From TrEMBL:
It comes from Stylosanthes scabra. Belongs to the protein kinase superfamily. STE Ser/Thr protein kinase family. MAP kinase kinase subfamily. Keywords: ATP-binding, Kinase, Nucleotide-binding, Serine/threonine-protein kinase, Transferase. This is mitogen-activated protein kinase kinase. Residues 55-318 form the Protein kinase domain.
Length: 325
């Protein structure tokens, strides 16, 4: 993936308030009988059931929505995975969220544009839940931006195409991600970009109550998530994912969060004003007309005017930068 123009990158992490995180202790008991619990699916590499006791933690990869992600190894096969451990909670809302996250992971397991799900396990000792996933060995787009520099248009087209294919798959199955941002888009050594972290995702069985859609990272929220009545009526989620993708691409190109001045310290009120009332970010000179128009199609304030994932996959910006044409 071609990367250009090194810049200082603003660490912009303003998730909505969540319960305070505590040190996670997740005992992974060795199976003592044939009836011991295991991860609910099989390992892709070996075809064998993976027992929690076979998992060795190697290092902490990061912290996501309500949990800690580890790099782990299957001690029998030496296969490497990512393991997200979500702390136990007696709160009914948190328990439902964990259940929804694992259900969405399992529903999206067949997409090559979504981080692959290998199963989940609830510890009988602590009640913590572990989700075993594909390990993406090149990290996140956020990490690449900080370490390699900003992305050129050809690289952005590759990112957009992969993410849109993932969103098209999810949206066709009534799944909205609700937290698309550089930190939740992962890359492997094959230069594949995949969607990860479904901690605040939603199955769209019915229209969302706007007040219940207020989750995720507020910096990447669309205007209708703050004020659904003013921007397109009921919040449906799909268009909000497209808005977040547009901001993500701009951030990867500009080297800083596009709704604020470079180096500006963000706060919740400033971000809400910029999202709902601010002008569309101005792109620097030299940007192609195709990329400029692509971003405009993603960042229309009215949610009903935003292009959908299938529409954006046919946009001239992607067609122009398609290596297969």
């Amino acid at each position: 993936m071609a990367l250009v123009r090194h810049r200082r990158h603003l660490n912009l992490r303003l998730p909505l308030p969540e319960p305070s995180e505590r040190c996670l202790r997740f005992p992974l008991p060795q199976p003592t009988t044939t009836a011991a619990k295991s991860f609910s699916t099989t390992a892709a590499s070996s075809g064998d059931v993976i027992f929690p006791g076979d998992i060795e933690k190697l290092e902490v990869l990061g912290h996501g929505n309500g949990g800690t992600v580890y790099k782990v190894r299957d001690k029998r096969t030496s296969s490497i995975y990512a393991l997200k451990v979500v702390q136990s909670s007696s709160d009914a809302t948190t328990r439902r969220r964990i259940k929804t996250e694992t259900e969405i992971h399992s529903r999206a397991a067949d997409s090559p544009y979504v981080v692959r799900y290998h199963g989940s396990f609830e510890s009988p000792l602590s009640g913590d839940v572990a989700i075993l996933m594909e390990y993406m060995d090149s990290g996140t787009l956020e990490t690449l931006l900080k370490t390699k520099g900003t992305f050129d248009e050809a690289s952005l087209a590759k990112v957009a195409r992969d993410v849109l294919n993932g969103l098209n798959y999810l949206h066709a199955r009534n799944i909205v991600h609700r937290d698309i941002k550089p930190a939740n888009l992962l890359v492997n050594s094959k230069n594949e970009v995949k969607i990860g972290d479904f901690g605040v995702s939603k199955l769209m069985c019915r229209t969302l109550d706007p007040c219940k859609s207020y989750v995720g990272t507020c910096a990447y929220m669309s205007p209708e998530r703050f004020d659904p009545d003013a921007y397109g009526g009921n919040y449906n989620g799909y268009a909000a994912d497209i808005w977040s993708l547009g901001l993500t691409l701009l951030e990867l190109y500009m080297g800083h969060f596009p709704l604020l001045q470079e180096g500006q310290r963000p706060d919740w009120a400033t971000l809400m004003w910029a999202i709902c009332f601010g002008e569309r970010p101005s792109l620097p000179g030299g940007v192609s007309a195709e990329f400029r128009d692509f971003v405009e199609c993603c960042l229309k304030k009215e949610s009903s005017e935003r292009w959908t994932a299938p529409q954006l996959l046919t946009h001239p910006f992607l067609c122009k930068n398609d290596p297969e044409t």
